[in-house]
Amino acid sequence: MKKLLLVSLCFLVLCTTQVFAQNRTVTGTVTAKEDGLPIPGVTVKVKGTSNGTQTNSAGKFTLSAPDGATLVFSFVGYNVTTAVVKGGVVNAVLTSASAQLGEVVVTTSLGIKHSKAELGYSVAQISAKQLTETNVTNIANGLTAKVAGLAIYSLDNGVDPNISVVLRGNRSLEGNNNALIVLDGVPIPSATLNSINPNDISDISVLKGAGAAALYGSEASNGALLITTKRGTGDGKPSIIYDNSFQAEQVSFYPKLQNQFGTGAGDPGYVDPITGQYLYVPFENEQYGPRFDGSIVDFGNGPLDSAGGLQQKIKYAAFPTSPVHQFFVTGFTEQNGVTYSQGDNQNSIYISAQNVHRTTVVPDDKNIKNAFSVRGHRTYGIFSIDYSIGYTKTKISTYGQNYVPQFAENSLYGAVLQLPANLDLSKFKDPDGEFGNPSNYYDDYAVNPYWIVKHARINTDRDQVLSNVNFKLDPTKWLSASYRISNNWGVAQRRGTSQEVDFTPYAISDPLGGTNLPSLFKGTGKAPGTLFDSYQYGDGTFNNSPGAGYNRIQGDALLDFHHTFFKDFKTDLLLGNTIWQQHLKYQTTASNNLLLKDFYNINTIGGLVSAAEGEQTVRQIAYFGEANISYKGWLTLDGTLRNEHDSRLSAAERSFWYPSGKISFVPTDALSFLKNNKVIDFWKVYASVSRVGEINIGPYEINNVNILTPGFPYGSLGGLSASTLNYSPTLKPELTTEVEIGTDIGLFNDRINLDFDVYDQRDKNQTVTINTSIATGYNQSLLNIGETESKGMELQLSGDILTKQNNKVLLRISPNFSINESKVLSLLPGVGQLSLGSNTYAVVGQPFPLLKGTDFLRSPDGKVIIDPNSGYPAGNNPNLVSYGRTTPKYDFGTTFTVGYKFITLTGTVEYRGGDVIYNNTGQSLLFTGSSYISAEAGRERFVYPNSVIQTSNGFVPNTNVLTRDGNYAFWEGSIYSSTMQPFVSSGAFWKLRELNLSFDLAQFINKTHFIKGATFALTGRNLFIWLPKSNPYTDPEFADVNPFSNTRGTNDDNITPGTRIFGADLKVTF
Amino acid sequence: MKKYISIITAVILAIGISGCKKDFLSLEANPNLPSQTTPQLILAGAIVTVPNITISYLNPYDVWSGYLSWNGGVVPPSTLFQYTFTNGTYGNFWTELYSNATNFNNLITLASKDASLSHFQAIAMIMKAWDFQNLVDNYGDVPYSQAFQPSTILFPKYDKAADIYADIYKQLDAAIAVAGKDGISPGASDPMFGGDMAKWVQTANTLKLRIALRESNLATGTTPPPFATTLPASGDGYLTTDALINPGYANTAGQQNPFYGNFVLDATGNPAANSNVYRANAFSVKYLQNTDDTLRLSRIFSLAAPVGSPAGTKPSVYYGNVYGDAVGIQGTANVSGAGPAFSKGATQSSIFILASESYLQQAEAVERKWIAGDASALYVKGIEADFNYLGLSKDDADTYAAANPITKNSNPIQNIIDQEWVTFLNGYDSFEAFNNYRRTGYPNLPSSVDPAAISNHLPTRLYYPSSEQTANPDNYVTVDPFTTKIFWAK
């Protein structure tokens, strides 16, 4: 009987469909009155029926309706508009509704949508358009400078850049300060951002504070980014978008280099004994030789063989292009993407495929990414399923290490900076060629950079699968239940190889007696090839930053009760449970002693395999709830509570409670005299208090361990030593208490919107690895100590200065500004200072991380005291000097849009400042002698600027004591180059982050039915950078530390110079 | 609909229940590194680390003891040539010695709870005493009584150096007592003596004598330091054979004999890193030549090509660079490196204490009338033992000893110390040679000739390391490394 009923139901459905099929097909475009741009996502319904659809990304819709029917167009923030069907085309123009701001719906924790009026905390929403304006290959780049309080740090510009996402500055001294990133409800590590196709993003919600993200608990104590991917929308008809972009990348900023002096070092034996002048040394790696004179000189290590073969010659004059500039190339990125989407309110499917081929400024480095994803949703009555699966394959190839074990840490860029200005680098391009090969290379102490590029490679393969499925049940109006299960899984493989080098006997004999590199291999005449292989089973990355690198399986159960009592009390109660497990396993094998040239296999080696393996598991169970009561929409109270049990903590310390409370009030709705005000459309004030813990303890960091003693095992003899890091089972999470107050204001018909907030975060129980006296038995102890404060303000403005409707020209400016102040309130009793690594410290009462380092002895008015005999700085201040914080205090960004007819120009500018950086690069430049500063005085003796001499009568300005040497002995051999102060500069910069000139070609191709829309754009990123004079070295954003550590602020020659990107993009919608 | 609800409920329950299992969150045990260990593993690891410390971290003493100097071709560091080292230089000694002492201390704690582990306990007590004598000789006052209590004392106070000396002497006596008890033999986990406790007792006595003699300047007349009341008479109470360490060194990266892997050849067969950095010191080469000690010279150092000869010339002379001379400095081909006695192969044994030192120390103690014995005979035995270690014959030793008797010059103690200095030319004992110099002034070791050197004499000690300045600031002491002396120094 039941079966029969079902069958008849099916018939009924078919019949209904049949009825609608008699209607005609209506198409149209919905645009906004203000700017004339199409609006996607507008709900279009046939009045009096349930028949409806939504506009697609081009603002177009198609649906069936009889002639004379009324279509209702509705969209959040716009007045409802109606139109009567007459013929096949119905276009609509929507005007923005007053008081719209409060009705804007934003995605908050766990994907729950709230209107902005109800929020007691700061949330910023970034649309797909804002994100992908300049065809970023990485989502994070598209977010840069667009949200107040959100700082994106691109820590290098290689083919596989490390990116760190920080909200509201640093709280934790040594722990994680990176925001949680949630993709469709699933936490992912920021490294995984690289693997997501930015074109698949629908929008991103930025939950700035701990309070906003309190429901996510300890993982979101640094705020959260909620990324929602696209689903198929519209009228049920398929839409296909093809997107092609092509970008070129060039070095935008080189350090200033000298081009007047060639190779030489003032080494013993290379100084004229009579004049004291530095002589030309044809095989030297440092550029402290005599001034270029245009003569032709011998170059390199003498003749190329013992028979007196070819002798290299070189013109002793600067080559027109610096060899440093000659080395870097133009990189290209080509992106091809196709998306197919189809769907309506009930069912949808979205399929995207993307191929990105990227090369960069370093020769031969490349990154090839293929991403494929399918997502969609289906509805069966009260039951619905939403699913998403994405697979990304990334192949990355970068340069490896040189062949000299003692210099293995020497970087490629370091080798490039050693090239003297008179070099025509093209002669050395072939690392196996006559002049380029390791035996004949001119430089006795450095490796040909082209050898590193060609013969030492690190190839990384990443296979990443991100998947989740969400089952949802809406049995009644007041209850929905859902269960989501998600998995982030992948395999990362890496192989590093460097080729065996066979030296000629002549080169090994060290013909010029300078202990050249080949002579280091005189035992065997060869540097054996090396090999390492790594595998990590986790999320497909090798990342070991907090939460990254792990396979993650998560289950979220949610019950959402919502009901309105007595007409005016809208209530929401959310109850949930989350269980997740993270697991990773890795294996590495390596050998530096391959037996055969060009045969890379770990079975064919001399000596023993160096091998390692390990695995880590973390589990957490959490229960949480949120209650939200809103009175008439203008007074909202919200409370959350979360309880967590985490496996990283010992059983006694495992359970934690995290509460939060928020209130928001909308005077423009509540107070009658403010209603229908012509100036202020919307005004909200809000406040929140929250407490969230953060577990900055890795797995297994509560019990002390023993490690294999170096060298063991010898045969069957094993040896274990106590680890020098002391753990404690009483470790607890850090606790962040945040207070936030803010206001949102909409003015002049919402043409000007202003969001302003201030916050104060106190982070106590800092989980800190303090250096302890080894006499305690341990070098370091992991402890809960101290408290920090991080407070600041965020201001986000957006203004429609001119609109197309009134002015024909569109001008919109959206500036944002934030200030963050950090301070260490306390450390361990009796301890006023803690080293955080990389010359940074936490000092009680000071901002953190604080750069401290050596400085010269100075007179009370700050002048450098010099030694009256040598003319050199007299010595180092025995105490380290504080230079300032290494994280920006001020961040200003602004996006502007100018539109006229079908042309739109969009740009983003950013300023960061209030921080200092330590340019270790400057010391590398001095070491190589390529530093511009070192040649400013013509390598002659000079009076140290602004210096004083200490006499019995006090400090006398030094006007005539020359430095004993104006060459190598001063610039590299004296206290000058080993002191930090000359290399500390302001970290401030202005950058033109993005520029996009786009042409909407839709009006020119409207006639064809096949193509529905097309845009063409010229794009540029990081086109210009302006730096203070004190920094002639590099982009201050780059840092040579673990990208996820908090000690950024030091750069060195491991970081290649900054780049600019420009390109073109064509997008066609079918 | 009911179906869906029941499915969802079932799934949630299934996961919830699995999550609620008692051990779901109990993941304290580290699967990668063990929290547990055994006395055998600690002992083997800690003993094998000892020669790594003396070889890898005590390099300035190789130079200051006149054994090695800087090689040409690499710009000499001003820290070495001009003594501009700071509290951030050479800090590894402190760290490595304390780490090693930590492991022996852990073994003492573990073994003292189990009577059957008495032999492990005794060895650990002896080696811990060695660590602390080295710490005192490097730094003077150091943490001792408050050391190794991380849960209660994060900032350990420094004990008086002399008090530590007295206590480690006492600990060595205690160790000898414990060694006499029955217990499990450490066997192969003792890579020095294979568990032969008689030899460990000899080692303990030799170390006791080393400690006592170090205080020779404080002793009055013929009385040894007050704590040194248990020194045996010369003879079998002290080491009669070389105390060598060999866990099974192999010609594999990281498993080579530490001297060989640092100063001779690396595992790929190319010159080891330090062999291009440190070469023979002119002082030691000339000393051996001037004393007609050519046999030992030929075993200690390798031949080099004459200075100024063209590349590829056959090595035919012994040559060393003058410490601090940046102008006349010569490169690898023209300066002697490690000789045949020390470049036998990657599997050669490491030195802990040579029998020659044992005999020569006894000779000195007899000379000082602290213990009974025949100083001259002990002196000859010392020379014989050194010739033996270098692979030379007893006859050659006796010939040499006859030409260079203990009475060669008026001060027999100087002769003994000079002989000790020669036996210390091995890479492991440079610090002992430097200690003898600081105690007695013999031989008259050269300081850097670099005109920019900030001192005209050798340093008297090192700075306390910067790690103490940051991690134990209240107890950190500022010292002058050219005037502050270790309490026993002359």
Strand content of chain B: under 5%
Strand element count of chain A? 58
Distance between the termini of chain B: 95 Å
Q: Which descriptor suits the 3D outline of chain B?
A: globular
Widest sheet, order of strands of chain B: 1-5
Largest interface: A-B, 97 and 99 residues
From the 3D structure, determine the CATH topology of the domain at 7-253 and 346-352 and 427-471 in chain B. Serine Threonine Protein Phosphatase 5, Tetratricopeptide repeat
Show unreliable segments of chain B. Answer: none
Q: What sequence of helices (H) and strands (E) makes up the elements of chain B?
A: HHHEHHHEEHHEHEHHEHHHHHH
Give the termini distance of chain A in whole angstroms.
47 Å
Structural class of chain B: mainly alpha
Percent helix range of chain B: 40-55%
Quaternary status: heterodimer
DSSP summary: helix tally of chain B: 17
Tally of helical runs of chain A: 13
Output the keywords.
heterodimer; A: 1070 residues; mainly beta; 23-stranded antiparallel sheet; 5-stranded mixed sheet; 8% helix; globular; B: 490 residues; mainly alpha; Serine Threonine Protein Phosphatase 5, Tetratricopeptide repeat; two-stranded antiparallel ribbon; two-stranded antiparallel sheet; 17 helices; 6 strands; 44% helix
Furnish the topology, listing elements before pairings:
The complex is a heterodimer of chains A (1070) and B (490).
Chain A: H1 2-21, E1 24-32, E2 43-46, E3 52-54, E4 60-65, E5 70-74, E6 81-84, E7 92-94, E8 105-107, E9 113-115, E10 123-127, H2 128-132, H3 139-143, E11 150-154, E12 163-167, E13 180-183, E14 186-188, E15 201-207, E16 224-229, E17 239-253, E18 296-298, E19 313-315, H4 323-327, E20 331-343, E21 348-359, E22 366-380, E23 383-399, H5 412-417, H6 449-455, E24 456-476, E25 479-498, E26 501-502, H7 505-508, E27 526-527, E28 530-538, E29 551-565, E30 569-591, E31 610-631, E32 635-646, E33 655-665, H8 667-670, E34 680-694, E35 706-708, E36 720-722, E37 725-726, E38 734-747, E39 752-764, E40 767-771, E41 780-784, E42 787-802, H9 804-807, E43 809-826, E44 833-837, E45 840-843, E46 850-853, E47 864-865, E48 881-885, E49 890-900, E50 903-913, E51 916-919, H10 920-928, E52 947-951, E53 954-957, H11 968-971, H12 975-978, E54 984-986, E55 989-1000, H13 1002-1005, E56 1013-1026, E57 1050-1051, E58 1058-1069
Parallel strand pairs in A: 1-7, 13-16, 37-41, 47-52, 51-57
Antiparallel strand pairs in A: 1-4, 2-3, 2-5, 5-6, 8-9, 10-15, 11-12, 13-14, 15-16, 17-20, 17-58, 18-19, 20-21, 21-22, 22-23, 23-24, 24-25, 25-28, 25-29, 26-27, 28-30, 29-30, 30-31, 31-32, 32-33, 33-34, 34-38, 35-36, 38-39, 39-42, 40-41, 42-43, 43-49, 44-45, 45-46, 46-48, 49-50, 50-55, 51-54, 52-53, ...
Chain B: H1 2-20, H2 39-56, H3 59-64, E1 68-70, H4 78-81, H5 92-111, H6 118-139, E2 142-143, E3 158-159, H7 161-179, H8 197-214, E4 243-245, H9 258-263, E5 278-280, H10 282-290, H11 294-300, E6 350-353, H12 355-367, H13 375-390, H14 394-403, H15 412-423, H16 430-440, H17 466-471
Antiparallel strand pairs in B: 1-5, 2-3, 4-6
Helix pairs in contact in B: 2-5, 2-6, 5-6, 6-7, 6-8, 7-8, 8-12, 12-13, 12-15, 13-14, 13-15, 15-16
